[in-house]
Amino acid sequence: MLKIAVLADLHLPDELPSMHVKVLQEAVECCVREKADVIVCAGDMAKADAFNAAKLLLDSLSSVPIPAVITQGNTEQGIPGFDRMIADCGKFISPEVEIFNAETPLPGNRSGKFRILVGHWPLKELPANVDMQIAGHSHIDRSGNGIEVVRGLDPDKVIGGAPAVTFFTVSGNNCQRSEKVLPGFSVGEWSRLERAELLGQIGVSVKYDAEQELDRAIELNIPAVEIIHTLTRNGSTALAAGRYQQQTGGAVSVHLPDISFANPDAAVEAVKRGVDIGAEQFTLHVPKATLSELADPADFERMTDLFCKVLELAPQAVFGIENMHLVKNETEFERRFGYTPLEQLKMIRELRARLPQHRIGALLDIGHARNNGVFYRKYSLAQWYDALRGNIVGMHLHQVTSDAEGYHNHTPVTGWYHRLISLASFINEWRNGCFAGAKLFIECRGGWESSYAMFKQELSK
Ligand SMILES: [Mn+2]
């Protein structure tokens, strides 16, 4: 009998420390605890260009007395010298089983042993001279026709369940598969009290019909609502917001319009209307200005002046400055400001320096952080949480979907571990206190009902 442990798709970044490093340690410990005979890495364990991460991976694996077979994923093909680093990890032979990575030529003649091929990409069809393929890449578990795909370990990408080590126990021609989920990534581990606490942070973004949506929020006793500023022009919104606050004790936030040099006063009237309807919190985007418009420190100061003019109108309120995402046709260099955690923090720090009595922080739009062009490769969700820790006053959440036309924001949230946003990393950071009670507003096109119902059901168990 032989027990094989499979690690895959961790996407370990070079910027250490991070949640992913902890996952690596726990995954390796899990292999030891479960008495694996061999560890198989099915690719994409380290991010592209992440040389230090690749070294850390190999160091962790060599710190335990278990042999390893490692194959290269698409990301590792970009790490200089990775192929040489794993040259000794091309195969594993036991009396019963032989395991080859995709880089090692398969011996032509069969030895009669159970033969496993480890590749990053799942094959369409199993070659005749192989009994089983182990693969990663798709971040979701799949099993059939001898091709075994594992969901892997990345808390930002894992689909269908929490990050897991997959085990195969081979005995003769029989192979049993099982998963060991890593601790810390599932609300099922939480106490009833913790689940209720998170549900108490989940609010909704009112975008269409303020009266109808606020009355529904009263019915469902939703603890917070964010109202888009255009709806506050209507007198009936003020009445409905009053009803909502009175009957639920919930918090009202207003999403303000963008401030830009072209439209410097856009948010002035909106914040006044927000104060009138009793808003405790406001969301403002980072400045709607290009990098070149803000390059000169004098221009950045001029923009900060415009923001201060708005913030001064509501000294009692909390202000969340929202990150934005790279949009079509924008390049890394010719784009607007505010697509990285550092830019979001820069704006927040400027404002705090100017208005020390105000409460100003980050409104982290998780969906925008995910759908962020080239920047997603640099700043995964776990890295956003890390960078903004201690500064988050609110969040927006929607799912991101992709098709032939590209990525789409503001689609409904249907579960914890879905494409393209997996909330395993969020679950982990929530317990670390990263979000410190900040409200999480569901912000979906077409309404929040189904997404809210999902969270309510999951967190009321
Ligand atoms: Mn948003």
Topology (elements, then pairings):
Layout: E1 2-7, H1 19-33, E2 38-41, H2 51-62, E3 68-70, H3 82-85, E4 91-93, E5 97-101, E6 114-118, E7 132-135, E8 142-144, E9 147-149, E10 164-171, E11 174-181, H4 192-199, E12 202-206, H5 210-219, E13 224-228, H6 235-248, E14 251-255, H7 266-276, E15 281-285, H8 291-294, H9 297-311, E16 318-322, H10 341-354, E17 359-365, H11 366-370, H12 375-378, H13 381-388, E18 392-397, E19 399-403, E20 406-411, H14 424-431, E21 439-442, H15 449-459
What do you see in this structure?
This protein has 461 residues and is of the alpha/beta class. It has helices at 19-33, 51-62, 82-85, 192-199, 210-219, 235-248, 266-276, 291-294, 297-311, 341-354, 366-370, 375-378, 381-388, 424-431, 449-459; strands at 2-7, 38-41, 68-70, 91-93, 97-101, 114-118, 132-135, 142-144, 147-149, 164-171, 174-181, 202-206, 224-228, 251-255, 281-285, 318-322, 359-365, 392-397, 399-403, 406-411, 439-442. An 8-stranded parallel barrel has the order 12-13-14-15-16-17-18-21, surrounded by 4 helices. A 6-stranded mixed sheet has the order 4-5-6-7-9-8, with no helix packed on it. Strands 3-2-1-10-11 form a 5-stranded mixed sheet, covered by helices on one side. Strand 1 (2-7), helix 1 (19-33) and strand 2 form a beta-alpha-beta unit. Helix 5 runs parallel beside helix 6 and helix 9 packs across helix 10. The longest helix is centred in the first third of the chain and has 15 residues, at 19-33. The protein is elongated and about 80 Å long. Bound molecules: manganese (II) ion. Residues 322, 365, 396, 443 line the site of manganese (II) ion.
